Here is the input.
Amino acid sequence: MDYAASSDIAHRKITTLRLKEMKKAGIKITCLTAYDALISRILDESGIDVILVGDSLGNVFQGNDTTLPVTLEETIYHTKAVVRGSSRALVIADMPFMSFQVSPEEAFRNAGRVMKETGCSAVKLEGGKLVVDAIARMTEAGIPAMGHLGLTPQSINKFGTYKARGTNEEEADQILEDARLLEQAGVFAIVLEKIPAELGKRITESIEIPTIGIGAGPHCDGQILVYSDMLGLTIDFSPRFVRRYARLYDDIKDAVTRFSDDVRNSKFPTEQESY
Here is the structure.
């Protein structure tokens, strides 16, 4: 279905219920990450449905090799900024490493803190059956939770690689079963990362809640990318699933070079740019 054709949904504030309505109506869901108010506002005004304050901020914003160093306090800080920059999009905060794995009660308290202190609309947790109890505790108390299956970056030291998951029958069946368990626990949507397209299709058709793919094929109910990858701000990360819609690294570098040249050659500022 053409998204523009469903203007009733397209122009309303996005909620978890709205995402389910979009799946039912066959309207694809658009998602990008953001870590500050400026980018959040641009994404929101461009009509993005979901903005994820991903723990990818550890890579993109902080320059770390993994997402593991991101803290709960840092997530709260960045999510506050993103919420200020958006009005229509559904803002979701990633629960960082070790903020939900210790116990369902600690996960519940940390998720509640994120919701209360940031004003976001939901949280996201990586993992399958091991986080079901935590998710059930959250959803029972009114904290919307999104799941995340397939490649889960917080488990990089367990996997030892960023290769695709679910490429063999046993692991594919486990991911499918985990998706069903997450749905039963109350998640409103599931991110599927770096799994075979056919598995993405199987999961999407097997559950009633939306699936958001990143390297999971075209059959998911929506797609998400890290905004800096999609805009070409990163140049040393080129996985197959990233399509670059701009080359902003080169554009920014060129602009900064021209600024420096103008300053050094006394061409900036001019009289018109002075008081």
Q: What stands out?
A: The mean pLDDT is 94.
